[in-house]
Design brief:
This protein has 290 residues and is α+β, with helices and mostly antiparallel strands. The chain has helices spanning 24-29, 97-101, 106-114, 129-148, 154-175, 186-199, 206-212, 217-228, 232-250, 255-261, 267-278, 282-289; strands at 5-7, 19-23, 40-42, 45-52, 54-59, 62-67, 70-74, 79-82, 89-95, 124-126. The protein has two domains: 5-181, Regulatory protein AraC (Jelly Rolls, Sandwich), CATH 2.60.120; 185-289, Homeodomain-like (Arc Repressor Mutant, subunit A, Orthogonal Bundle). Helix content is 49%, strand content 17%.
């Protein structure tokens, strides 16, 4: 079994560190890039704006069909893949966490990452004609600066336009009822999410994470209810299952070995847990995606 490829950010333009922009149609037509149609993990953030045609994109094992006006976001360390399309067109903005942090304030970075957090917001956004044109205009401004200007001002203009794009996306989501920016307990929830991503194979008990966060289990549940309307245990299970899925397609380990790696004392319990939360056996899942 082939290991999942991890793609790090790489841009040969030294004048634009931490940022890149490519055309979707060019990427899909590149014969020397077969890995993009295989599941792979990325070490940067990714915004895909579809400007024409139809296609689909997989993000963490969910397929999202797209057409003109669709916007997709992928966060660092997520698993995704492209599907070949003969008519799909669009713009892909790629940037690192450092690129945002070098221009945005700490609060703005925190808010920006909400757009890419699959627990807080769907990675797929359908834009109406007015919103699509507004976002496209910003992307084209970024593209112009990126491709036509190589002076001392272009990187600052790109950062500012990207900043404006992120804020406008928040406005669009707010109109759709997704007012994440104003939600109380967001920093606490993100701290909890990070802890589970780091320690999910060590413990799946909400009480253990509450202790790590110096709060009660009831308080931790309140954090989760306020942000995603789920219990802390439900959030833990969602994150752990995603990590198990990544392990299933990322390593040649046997199902039994993965069961032990994921913190289960008995493979039977692992099978039951996986099937309960994914409606599939580990073998079927691995066969489907590997």
């Amino acid at each position: 079994m082939k290991n999942l490829q991890y793609i790090k950010f790489h841009n040969q333009k030294s004048s634009h560190p931490g940022f890149d922009l490519v055309k979707l149609e060019k990427l899909l037509s590149h014969e020397g890039n077969p890995e993009i149609t295989q599941l792979h993990k990325i070490g940067f953030f990714h915004i895909l704006l579809i400007t024409g045609g139809k296609g689909a994109h997989t993000i963490d094992f969910t397929d999202y069909p797209y057409a003109k006006g669709t916007l997709l976001t992928v966060r660092k360390d997520q698993v995704h893949r492209f599907f070949k399309s003969t008519d799909a067109k669009g713009h892909i903005l790629l940037f690192t966490e450092d690129f945002l942090a070098s221009h945005f304030s700490k609060t703005e970075v925190l808010r920006s990452f909400q757009l890419f957090n699959e627990l807080l917001s769907s990675p797929k956004l359908e834009l109406n004609q007015s919103d699509f044109q507004e976002i496209l205009d910003l992307v084209l401004q970024i593209e112009s600066e990126y491709k036509e200007h190589e002076d001392e001002f272009s990187i600052g203009i790109i950062r500012s336009a990207l900043h404006m794009l992120v804020i406008k996306l928040f406005r669009i989501k707010a109109r759709k009822g997704n007012k994440l920016v104003k939600r109380k307990y967001l920093p606490e929830f993100l701290q909890f999410q990070k802890l589970v991503e780091e320690k999910g194979f060590e413990t799946r008990k909400a009480s253990d994470y509450a202790q790590l966060m110096n709060c009660t289990t009831k308080t931790l549940n309140n954090f989760c209810r306020a942000i995603v309307d789920k219990s802390a245990k439900a959030v833990i299970d969602e994150i752990v299952i995603t990590q198990i899925k990544r392990l299933l397609i990322n390593t040649p380990l046997s199902i039994t070995e993965i069961a032990y790696a994921a913190g289960f004392n008995e493979p039977t319990n692992f099978y039951k847990y996986f099937k309960k939360h994914s409606n599939s056996s580990p073998e079927v899942f691995r066969k489907t995606y590997a």
